[in-house]
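Hi F.,

I've been meaning to write this up properly since the lab meeting, where we talked about keeping a consistent format for the predictions we share between groups. The idea is simple: the sequence comes first, exactly as it goes in, then the structure tokens exactly as they come out, then a line or two of notes. No screenshots and no reformatting. I'm using this chain as the first example so we have something concrete to point to.
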Amino acid sequence: MITSEEFSCFLFCALLVLAAFYVGNQNYDLVSYSSSIQEKFAAHQNDPSSETEVNTIQKRPDAQIKKDEHKYKEDDWNNYVEALGAEELFQKGISLLEKDISKAASYFLKAADIGLPEAQAVLGKMYYDGFHFKKNYKKSASYFKLAAEQGHINALFNLGYMHEVGHGVPQDPQRAAKFFLKAAKRGDADAQARLGIFYFVGTGVNKDLEEALKWFLKSALQGNSVSQNFLGYQYYNGIGVSKNLSDAKKWFLKAAEQGDSEAQYNLGIYYNRKGARQNLEKSFMWTLLAKDQGYEDAAKQLTIIMKKMSAGQIAKAEKQAARCASMSYKKC
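Output, unedited:
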């Protein structure tokens, strides 16, 4: 049997690993755009409900763009781009991403020079990833800085991360925390989660578990699975908040249903605890799902759970796990 002390140890160690991962020098994919810029832009353009900065741009009809291109076809390139506004240059760059990345980059550069923060943020990401341009963290940071000075939320977050790990700028957790705070105050869920971790661990700010809880809650209510998992931990152990097992389960479940393997593992341990809440089949199911996603400690935990189960219970739990995975972890 796993005692409550053992459970706390499992969960505490897991959260320390998670905190170290998010605060350490991992190869982090900056927010603002996905690893494939083309896919992200395509998603923005196909989703009119998106609230990203990309969709705040007025779009000209394709026919008008082609007409303008024909008009300037024999003119100097600079005359053509000078005739376009910054937003139109940026829109044109987006439309050319899959066809002619060199020309797309030229449009972004011109729009950025005029001062469009969206273009500056795109260039920051391109230089960071080495997409079209040679990877250059200093140039990346300089473009993010230009966009951040105009309040571009994703640029604020990205600058915070770069100061956190020392990419293109001096490593400075305190400065990183300031950028995260600016983005967090404007409602960015990723920045709120990052800030929560900073307060939880005491990185760049004084350790403050109540402040961590506040930012985790703001982020979790927007669906951020990292924050939801941390909230589950805090409520389970009564850290920075009164202990509440029902709330702990609620937040673990919300994160687990999004495919967060850490939360799935924690749910498995939650259901393995002694008492009325114990449900070995659910414990096995969630732990198996975490293992299938590569969560390191899950395999060892499965052997602990299996010792308490019959062959029939194990077979049933395995079927439940397969069904859960097929439904993208919803309604498990």
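Notes:
Residues 32-171 form a domain with the Serine Threonine Protein Phosphatase 5, Tetratricopeptide repeat fold (CATH 1.25.40.10).
Confidence is low (pLDDT under 50) at residues 1-75.

If this format works for you, I'll send the rest the same way.

G.
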